Amino acid sequence: MATTQENPLLEGLHVRRTPDPCILTIFGASGDLTQRKLIPALYSLAFRRLLPDRFGIVGVARTEESDEEFRDRMKEAVQNHARDEFRDDVWDALAAGMRYVATDFADEEGENRLASTLAELDEERGTNGNRVYYLAIPPVVFGTVVEALGKRRTAHGWTRLIVEKPFGHDLESARELNRSIEAHFEENEIFRIDHYLGKETVQNMLALRFANGIFEPIWNRQFVDHVQVTVAESIGIEGRAGYYEKSGAIRDIFQNHLLQLLAITAMEPPIDFTADSVRNEKVKVLRAMHTPGPKSVVRGQYGRGFVEGEEVPGYREEEGVDPQSTTDTYVAAKLYVDNWRWADTPFYVRMGKRLARRETTIAIQFKRAPHPPFEELSSEGLRPNVLVVHVQPDEGISLAMGAKVPGQGMNIRTVHMDFLYGGAFRTGLPEAYERLILDAMLGDATLFTRIDEVEEQWSLVDAMVAPWARDRPAFPNYPAGTWGPPSADDLLIRDGRAWRKH
Ligand code: BG6
Question: Is the CB of 233 within 6 Å of ligand 1?
Fold first, then answer.
């Protein structure tokens, strides 16, 4: 295995070992995710020589395409979306093991073609029957594909299944989906993706909390006033009306990414960094959360407005969206984690599309100093200490604290101590999918969600959306390019608090 000394490119990725030879089959290969994320991530792994020498990729989708056409399309995807420069030698080596199979999986014939392509490639590349199946397909075809894969499992080599979101649309459908997978695969063969867990900055929350002695003693209700988690996007729904109309912000972001960020922030220290230890602690947090009452939840939908100087349509005007749609594109909530560490400490969370700008942050706001011995006027510009984890963009951590303004008298103002990834480390940050694909190949499920977490997440969402079926919200209630509906501000104002300024 190459070390970071031999290969400085490895610095951005902590490499434990190289995966076994294997074939990665992507179902949904004509989709956006494959072009924008998966193939560019695989290229970046190849660029850093992190893939096994004996490796193959099979794309599977409905679109009729030859191997050659598929390779050309993927080459373009890498040129447009990969974070690394395009190198012919890296691409040629990767493309040599690339095949494409067109099928809708509704018939045996398609299954047979895939099976023989896999068998041929396995022989050619020497991948010992090891298979990773990446399922980036709509829920309606999910059952059929899993069944077909399960039926044709061979005793030869290992099999792992990476499952993209959405994992169901409520608790019942998630359980159903899981039953269909578990009929053929063991839990330790199933890798449910939440790509936020693959983000460096999210993992760094674990490093911040558990690799430093100074934070843990104050990471609790005695010192923390409240926590704010923001997942703001300036983009709209990007042509995904079919999916988004049924999901809304609550299922698209809250159910998975947001709750995972919260769980990582609130969890107890795991005894080690293994899949079960980490997930055991996260699921306890999710279990400790109770359903917020209707007054503690605000939902919104964007109307027409301006984002970064450009006029954009309202949600109801987007192509494919019902002009009367009541789908939420924004959700804010006040949540509680009812345990000894966090009882009575509010976790204010908000997420939305078409907000003023892209920003994902976790802000821990500490209680005020109990008795500042300064005159009131001199500390007017002083705010409480806040530790902000900037998940994206401008990845890093900042700590707000009071400092004396130079000069006569004792004037205090808030200043920031910043750690920026860009400045501290030489290499760029790997994409979440690089880390996650590699982990799945290695069989490490630490950064994937276990079924009990998924179930807890859905239970909470189901309870939150139940009252929504009855009311007709006055949508749109925020113009695109703003920070969401005014009622989201009230959520905090009522408690004598405010959302962090941007
Ligand atoms: C996806 C959602 O899971 O996450 C998208 O389906 C959203 O709607 C995306 O835009 C955000 O991911 P990132 O990595 O850009 O923050």
Answer: yes
- Whether the CB of 318 sits within 6 Å of ligand 1: no
pLDDT in tens, the chain (502 residues): 444 444 444 444 455 578 999 999 999 999 999 999 999 999 999 999 999 999 999 999 999 999 999 999 999 999 999 999 999 999 999 999 999 999 987 778 888 999 999 999 999 999 999 999 999 998 888 888 999 999 888 778 999 999 999 999 999 999 999 999 999 999 999 999 999 999 999 999 999 999 999 999 999 999 999 999 999 999 999 999 999 999 999 999 999 999 999 999 999 999 999 999 999 999 999 999 989 999 999 999 999 999 989 999 999 999 999 999 999 999 999 999 999 999 999 999 999 999 999 999 999 999 998 877 777 666 677 789 999 999 999 899 999 999 989 988 888 889 999 999 888 887 788 999 999 999 999 999 999 999 999 999 999 999 999 999 888 899 999 999 999 999 999 999 999 999 998 6
Cα 277 to averaged position of ligand 1 atoms, centre (Å)? 27
257 is catalytic: yes
User: Would the pTM of this model clear 0.90, i.e. be above it?
Assistant: yes
Strand order in the sheet with 98-102: 98-102, 55-61, 22-27, 131-135, 159-163, 190-192
Residue 194 CA, ligand 1 centroid: distance in Å: 10
Dmax over Cα atoms in the chain, in whole Å? 84
Q: Is 252 a pocket residue for ligand 1 (Cβ < 6 Å)?
A: yes
Q: 55: which strand partners?
A: 22
Q: DSSP assignment, residue 482? A: B
Choose the residue to mutate in 234, 238, 253 for probing ligand 1, maximizing ligand atoms within 8 Å of C-beta: 253
Establish whether residue 395 lines the binding site of ligand 1, counting it when its CB lies within 6 angstroms of any ligand atom.
Answer: no
Of the residues 14, 169, 195, 257, which is catalytic? 257
Q: Rounded to whole angstroms, what are the CA distances from 162 to 135, 283, 297, 303, 436?
A: 6, 20, 33, 36, 9
**Dist. CA 97–CA 29, nearest whole Å:** 15
Distance from the alpha carbon of residue 54 to the mean position of ligand 1, in angstroms:
32
Which of 193, 252, 357 has most ligand 1 atoms within 8 Å of its beta carbon, as the pocket-test mutant? 252
Ligand 1 mean position, distance from CA 204 (Å): 19
- Name residue 419's beta-bridge partners: 397
Ligand 1 centroid, distance to 446 Cα (angstroms): 21
Measured N-to-C along each axis, helices 451-465 and 275-287 cross at an angle, to the nearest 10 degrees, of 20
